[in-house]
Amino acid sequence: MEVLIPWLTKAHEFGLENLNATTEHGQRCREEVRDSILPGRWIHEQTGTIMGYRYSDSPIVIADPSASEPPTSITEYIPSTWPGARAPHVFLSDGKTSIFDLYGLNFSIVDFTEAGKPSDEFVTVAGKLNIPITKVHLPGEAHCKVIWERDVVLVRPDGFVAWRSPPGRAQEVNVGEIQKVLLIAAGKSG
User: Fold this and answer.
1) Share above pLDDT 90 across residues of the chain, in percent, rounded to a whole number
2) Are residues 26 and 103 in the same domain?
3) How far is the CA of 173 from the CAs of 14, 99, 161, 169, 170, in angstroms?
4) 22 lies in which domain range?
C-alpha cells in the first residue's frame, strides 16, 4: 500500500524503533520527519482563504451594488456579510449564545431592526413560496449589527450570505423584492 502523505512515508521508512531511539541517528530521523511536516503547515496559515471564501458570482447569490467588495487576505479572516461570504460568527450580548445557534436548518433571515417588520415580511413571503425559513430577530444586539454590516441579512442553509438589505433601507424592501430574492436564493428563478 502506497502512503501519499510525505511525513507519514518518512516515518514509515524509519520505523518506530529509529524514531524513538535516543541516539544521534534517532535524532536525525525525527528531524527528517519534522522537516517533511513543516511544508504542509501553510494550509493552517490560510485562515483568510478558508474562512473568507466567497461565492460572489453564484447564481443563487444576490449582488450588493451599494458597496465595493471587501478586501480579501490569505492569512487573515475579514468578517463580512458581502453576498456569497460565509456569515460571520459572533456571540450575542450574553457572551454564551452564538448567532449560529439561532439559525434554522434551512434559510435564516437575520434582522437587527427594532420592530422586525422586514423579517416578518420575509417569513410571510417564504411561506407562500413554500421556502422554509427561520426568523432571527436581534434588535438589542448592536455589536452584532456592526459586524454584520446591515439591518437584514438572508443566510443560506450552508451558512453563506445570499442577500443583505441596502444600507439604511431595510424598511423599504417591498414584497416583490423579497419574493425575487427568495426565488433566486432558493434556485427557483434566475
Assistant:
1) 57
2) no
3) 66, 23, 17, 7, 6
4) 6-45
Least confident of 46-55, 147-156, 175-184: 46-55
In sequence order, what DSSP letters do the residues of 30-66 get, joined into one string?
HHHHHHHHGGGGGGGG-HHHHHT-B-TT-TTS---TT
Query: What does each C-alpha distance from 70 to 40, 44, 52, 90, 143 come to in angstroms?
Result: 28, 23, 10, 19, 19
Residue 9 phi/psi, 5-degree rounding, is -60, -45
Phi, psi of 10 (to 5 degrees): -60, -50
Q: Report yes or no on 31 lying in a domain.
A: yes
Task: Give the number of residues written for the chain.
Answer: 190
Please report where in the chains the cell 446591515 appears, as a residue. Answer: 150
Dist CA 168 CA 151 (whole Å):
7
Contact by Cβ (8 Å): 153, 87: yes
